[in-house]
Amino acid sequence: MITLGLESSCDETSVSILRDGKILANLIASQDFHVKYGGVVPELSSRAHLQIIAPLFKQALEEAKISKDEIDVVAATAGPGLIGALLVGLNFGKALAYSLDKPFVAVNHIEGHIYSGFLMEEKPDYPILTLVVSGGHTLLLLVEDELNITRLGTTIDDAAGEAFDKVAKMIGLGYPGGPKVQEYSEKGNPKAVLFPVANLKGEYDFSFSGLKTSVLRHIQKEYKNAENIPEVDKPDIAASFQDAVVRALYKKVEKAINNYDVNSLSLVGGVAANKAIRNKFSELAKKYNKKLVIPDIEFCGDNAAMIAYRGSKLFENNIISGLTANAFPALPKDSFKSLKK
Ligand code: KG4
Ligand code: ZN
After folding, report:
1. HEC string of 15-55?
2. Probe ligand 1: pick from 164, 169, 274, max atoms within 8 Å of CB?
3. Is the pLDDT score of 341 beyond 60?
4. Which domains does the chain have, with CATH numbers?
5. What is the Å distance from ligand 2's center to 42 Cα?
6. Looking at the whole model, is its pTM more than 0.90?
7. Looking at the predicted structure, is the pLDDT value of residue 223 above 60?
8. How far apart, in whole angstroms, are the C-alpha atoms of residue 155 and residue 38?
9. Could you identify which of 157, 187, 204, 338 might form a hypothetical disulfide with 152, taking C-beta atoms 3.0 to 4.6 angstroms apart as the criterion?
10. How far is the CA of 81 from the centre of ligand 2 (A)?
11. Does pLDDT of 39 surpass 90?
12. Taking CA 301 as the corner, what is the angle to CA 297 and CA 304, rounded to the nearest 5 degrees?
């Protein structure tokens, strides 16, 4: 079965072609021009998706060495994401499915991330404890099988990636923040400043806004304002912040490992590219003797291969949205309904 995947929820346009779950092509065009605005400008993002999606589709067919008539299923991200950006990929996918007379499957972007681990040679075994850490979401999920995904916890304020981006901006490292914080952290001492980890009522919930405020307070106390931070101090602040994020994630995931009988642990989403987090999760998996799956860096960030993979699984389960599927900007409230234990 050949599945075409399309992803355009934020600042990456991606087209991927899978044959029976194996990647034939996975092209990702990143919109680097947002750097000069210090963040993604939604309207510019939509226009850029519109310009590149058709040539990227053509290139993907060439790379996969197939003709468009060989596509069996078309899958596209429907949300959550920037609405104008989403509509580009979604409508391209629907139009293509209509013209080829093939089924169309709308895919939830977060479900795409969850299934990015399945693109790896070594796949997770169910039940899986999955931590989704991206720019917009931080979710701890129990994935029992393809159709049973339950939310154990989420962030009550900022997402982990958002905290990386905001702190990077605060200490003048630029955008996108995550990779910059990681780069600076490698030269810094993670124990230089002890930033706190929030203590929350929700057993598996996260909070990063207090941490962000602590970094701001530290800057105000030591330097009055960010412009005065000497270049030599930046690595220590970055490393100490990153260490607090790692501790916060580790604490909740460890608690869930102790309370749920899972076979695997998986770490997905843009922030899963972070080396310190990857290392800490390897330790955690070893400690509890669990199989650990973290996608290769290429599949941590937004990509259409994960959308095609999830789309093919929904199709196999007869979940075909058809051409009436609409885009949605936020995760619906009842998605992955919380499980009390
Ligand atoms: O999953 P993703 O590509 O897009 C969303 O769906 O949000 O995640 C993007 C997020 C950004 O906040 C970015 O700063 C963060 O992932 N990120 C990182 C790293 N690489 C990307 N955060 C920490 N360390 C990294 N190496
Ligand atoms: Zn994403």
Report:
1. EEEEECCEEEEEEEEECHHHHHHCCCCHHHHHHHHHHHHHH
2. 164
3. no
4. 2-114+299-338 (3.30.420.40), 122-294 (3.30.420.40)
5. 15
6. yes
7. yes
8. 24
9. 204
10. 8
11. no
12. 110
